[in-house]
């Protein structure tokens, strides 16, 4: 019953409101982004803020990979780091991916686990060391700090994946808004909302919200492991800065937890339902928009697929080259299909490529996903691509390679909207079977269409929601009424450990008094009887 | 920085959207309301649903106090109960209030606590017995059930204060939406969201979210007490029905926890920030609207107050008469003020009433609260009045008498927007001082204005939000993707008790093995040495 509000209408409302919303003066916003695919999201938000008349200033490092020094919609502050550990370089990720695939190939084992963290942890520490160095460079630079003060910013907008912005915000006494999914210790919710490990999958653990006993044990261990890594490997980089600049009374973690608004890049058609907080605002899919017409050549290629339709494949911006033994299997499977294939591929060209497959260095992914001829999307499971797929209702063949991609793919598989492949175990045969199943079994498309209709049925477009709450923080100088301060309690008070111990002590004392009294009475009675007998 | 979107604009948006929102066909909604002030809220929601073209059917008892049999905006199903325990009668509450005031007068003590529950618990049980009888009457009536089935309702909307509607919804296999603040065991959140007693005040305990150790102990005890009352006094009435009609596999509490959407009559300018869930939608203040012009006589009276302004007093619809020893003190204090007073008063007229005080049996409360001459509102702390005060930014002198009114008043006092009086300790002197403080100390008004501006600054009017989510449930036949099913887990699994025990056991075993091995080695070494020596 009931017809659904169309996509176009939803977006029409969003675009109209973004232009005409009343009574908002221009604000001054200081932005601390994270480079790479995170920047794609942040940049979109900045563009919208600029269009609304706000002045945006972006802090970047001189070696930044994605964040350009000059752009029409922001001015930038460039910080040169002493020894630029250029972690963001392409080569780094090519090598990293190769190592990770090697480990993954060996299958799930304790040795694999150790090898994985042996590779991962030094890089993680190095990234945070670099970010904290950026903090030092800013906080030590008196001219820069004075100019920041003079600008009289209204708020700091930051991606807390690299949370150095919270230190600067604290120094400038400014309210903060997070554009967040990942934070130092994993998924953002874990820092600010209750997260029972009995049904909330922890970061790095690809399980659903319905776990058996073994999965719950693993999930709990994962939680402890993430906490330990955060506490001993990540936080010390920032703790040192907090100690040096703000003294012993300020706690780095409290600065993180004290953000006014968490714009969470999550939607519950994707994430499993879980506890949340009043200052968490969900903006998952805020980057999505209707597709635009394709170029005439691409449209011609797509139309040439006839009734069979088209398959898209892209493994994201980070992955420059899959090993050739994998790509040749993929190419062989594609060659067997009656569908046409558009494959975004940067590395060596497989020599067994079929006539039906078009290799491109870049593709208009969103416009293609919105094309009615597209039957399936072979994707690595980055969130940008996933939300675009959900938006357009295209089922996914997941091929996760790194980081959160495994968990992301699993979330769609759990809803019956995707089938996930292990890239290291991929053969032309099993890849072909998977493709055919996703194309021909209508449940995948139907489930994705259902997710799409739920995702689109919102009172406001998520981008509009994000802008509303950023401007709310500007108008009211924060959002303290939505933010609990319970994180300032000691852990034993927060978890009522002291109260429970106290109540147990009282109970034991009462029991002791009762038992003691009874014993005392018994002894007295016995003695009396004895005396009588005697 | 930034000017606030005006009230009128917010409401203009709301009313326009409610009329013109696209693509929604008429739904059929079955409503189980709660009588009294709860009905005032539910009725408003029903009126809006009717205006949107939905067909609404309300289930009522023949002796219903507020819910009329016929109304232009709904059709009703009237159920006659065998022995109508007409709990809703006015006399009942007059006697109940007198008893409660008597207990309150004696001050906080264990005896007072026992007396209070001695009075309260039988009434509570009786109310739920009556509600469960209503359930029996409906579920046993085959003609009625068949006609309900034939109508093909789209959903059930209910106030889970008396949760019999969830049983009928389960029988009819319909999705449910709650219009809720109170549920069987207290405040609604406690049933569906994590609620750490370390900083979330439990129902019936008037404390803020920042508690000292003693308050946290009391809060935890309150939580246990509420749980015990719910488990042994309230739920059995419904458990029996569930057992009889749905068999042993269905659990009444799971039916409650499984509601698709919780429209929570709460706003965080009022409630302390606390954990929540994705399917909780906040609609606090959805009943509020801009004021309309007063009648000419009332306007004349208000204007005659000159620069001093007007004070309003109303203790809500439930309270028909305060004891005359209190009202005469109130009248005497009012007579000392230069302000004019409008006092909604039903009982005996105090004979020491000043010339400045107008006694009325009813007043256009919302229109008066929106009048710029109104300086303060003497209120009992019912949520309708509180949200109207917040909406119009009028500071409150709280005089809580029953139920949640104590907690409600405390929430505003904690924000510096109200001062609370103990009605049983009220004298003309302390009442006058309190009034003067709230009128002359600008902080009360400023704080209330601040709450007002935060409350009004929303992307959508809360009434529009409520309608959106009701129609969402109609369109998608529920909202399962927002609802966790973790409540179906056993308590020890939910709280990871089994996992923690298992991990501790493993740890102990490992320790035992290590210690054992070391001991074994030591013994072997010692023996070898001995042998060598020998």
UniProtKB/TrEMBL annotation, chains A, B:
Keyword Transmembrane helix belongs to the record: yes
Record's bilayer topology term: Single-pass membrane protein
PROSITE patterns per the UniProt record, alphabetical: UDPGT
UniProt catalytic activity: glucuronate acceptor + UDP-alpha-D-glucuronate = acceptor beta-D-glucuronoside + UDP + H(+)
EC supergroup of this enzyme: transferase
The entry's keywords: Glycosyltransferase, Membrane, Signal, Transferase, Transmembrane, Transmembrane helix
Transmembrane segments: 492-522
Pfam families found in the cross-reference section: UDPGT
Annotated localization: Membrane
Assigned EC number: 2.4.1.17
Single GO molecular function: glucuronosyltransferase activity
Region forming the signal peptide: 1-26
InterPro entries: UDP-glycosyltransferase, UDP_glucos_trans, UDP_glycos_trans_CS
One term under GO cellular component: membrane
Family, per entry: Belongs to the UDP-glycosyltransferase family.
Protein name: UDP-glucuronosyltransferase
The species this protein was found in: Perca fluviatilis
Taxonomy of the source species: Eukaryota, Metazoa, Chordata, Craniata, Vertebrata
């Amino acid at each position: 019953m009931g017809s659904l509000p169309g996509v176009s209408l939803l977006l029409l409302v969003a675009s109209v409101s973004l232009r005409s919303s009343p009574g908002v003066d221009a604000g001054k916003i200081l932005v601390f982004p994270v480079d790479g695919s995170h920047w794609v999201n942040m940049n979109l938000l900045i563009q919208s803020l600029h269009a609304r008349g706000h002045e945006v200033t972006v802090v970047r490092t001189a070696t930044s990979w994605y964040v350009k020094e000059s752009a029409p919609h922001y001015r930038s502050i460039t910080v040169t780091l002493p020894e630029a550990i250029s972690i963001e370089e392409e080569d780094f990720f090519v090598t990293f991916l190769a190592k990770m695939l090697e480990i993954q190939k060996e299958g799930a084992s304790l040795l694999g686990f150790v090898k994985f963290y042996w590779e991962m942890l030094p890089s993680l520490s190095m990234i945070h060391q670099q970010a904290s160095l950026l903090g030092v460079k800013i906080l030590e630079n008196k001219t820069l700090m004075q100019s920041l003060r003079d600008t009289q910013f209204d708020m700091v907008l930051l991606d807390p994946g690299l949370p150095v912005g919270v230190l600067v915000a604290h120094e400038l006494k400014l309210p903060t808004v997070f554009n967040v999914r990942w934070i130092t210790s994993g998924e953002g919710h874990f820092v600010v909302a209750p997260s029972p490990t009995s049904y909330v999958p922890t970061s790095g653990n690809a399980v659903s919200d319905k776990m058996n006993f073994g999965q719950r044990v693993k999930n709990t261990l994962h939680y402890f492991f993430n906490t330990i890594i955060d506490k001993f490997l990540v936080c010390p980089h920032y703790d040192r800065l907090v100690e040096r600049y703000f003294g012993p009374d300020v706690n780095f973690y409290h600065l993180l937890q004290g953000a006014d608004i968490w714009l969470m890049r999550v939607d519950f058609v994707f994430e499993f339902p879980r506890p949340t907080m009043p200052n968490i605002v969900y903006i998952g899919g805020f980057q999505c928009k209707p597709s635009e017409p394709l170029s005439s050549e691409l449209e011609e290629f797509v139309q040439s697929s006839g009734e069979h339709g088209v398959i898209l494949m892209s493994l994201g911006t980070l992955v420059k080259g899959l090993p050739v033994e994998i790509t040749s299997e993929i190419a062989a499977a594609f060659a067997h299909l009656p569908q046409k294939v558009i494959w975004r591929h940067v590395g060596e060209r497989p020599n067994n490529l079929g006539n039906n497959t078009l290799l491109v260095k870049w593709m208009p992914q969103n416009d293609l996903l919105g094309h009615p001829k597209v039957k399936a999307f072979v994707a690595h499971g980055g969130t940008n691509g996933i939300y675009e797929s959900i938006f357009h209702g295209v089922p996914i063949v997941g091929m996760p390679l790194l980081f959160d991609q495994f968990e992301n793919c699993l979330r769609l598989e759990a809803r019956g909207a995707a089938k996930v492949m292990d890239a290291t175990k991929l053969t032309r045969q099993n890849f072909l079977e998977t493709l055919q199943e996703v194309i021909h079994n209508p449940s995948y498309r139907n489930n994705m269409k259902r997710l799409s209709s739920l995702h689109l049925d919102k009172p406001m477009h998520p981008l509009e929601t994000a802008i509303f709450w950023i401007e709310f923080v500007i108008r009211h100088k924060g959002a303290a009424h939505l933010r609990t301060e319970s994180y300032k309690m000691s852990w034993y008070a927060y978890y009522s450990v002291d109260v429970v111990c106290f109540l147990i002590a009282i109970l034991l004392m009462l029991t002791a008094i009762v038992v003691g009294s009874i014993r005392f009475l018994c002894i007295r009675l016995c003695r009396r009887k004895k005396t009588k007998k005697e």
